[in-house]
Amino acid sequence: MIDLYTAATPNGHKISIALEELALPYSVHTLDLAQREQKRPWFLAINPNGRIPAIIDRAAADFVVFESGAILIYLAEKTGRLLPADACGRSRVLQWLMFQMGGIGPMMGQANVFFRYLPEKIQPAIDRYQGECRRLFQVLDGQLRDNEFLAGDYSIADIANWAWVRTHRWSGVEVDDLPHLLRWLERIRARPAVQKGINTPPSPINRDASDEESRRFVEGARQMVDMGRSPRPAG
User: What start-end ranges are recorded for coiled-coil regions in this protein (predicted)?
Assistant: First the structure.
């Protein structure tokens, strides 16, 4: 049994999707980010970085894994699925996983802060991060031009990137002119395990919600973003 400590964020949904795809039994422990449960001592004992997601593998002597990319690799290696065993195939998947960890996630996270969460609008910062998101989406579109998935077969690289890219409108970036990326987004969204994973736990806001719904959510969500000490949201 896997204990999953999570919330309804792209990083959290990466792991619930993977657990569903791998058919691993797990129990969900949803943290209230607005109440800063992720910073409480009991959770810091699990993840010293105070962020979701984290897992405890009860079948492996209560082994703890934090950082979403590390969790994906651990689960794939545990099951022998979603990550090739050969060195070249494994490297291809890990390259695109690191592309998400080092690029897509941080840039979209910063776009969300400056476009959605900060009360004041700093347009140069918004333009910078939305522009970098757009560039990274174009890289994905190019890779998907001649490939059904990012690194050969469907893998943890697709799960990681998809969980973020699907929320592109929340970052204020459109992808309507990127046909290969759109095809990939829809192909993965149609998978039953993915549909279940993105509702574990369910998001409190539809990322395509109306401006008024989004405004109300953002006002409450600002409590989750420690503006004074951290430049990015938890997730």
Answer: none
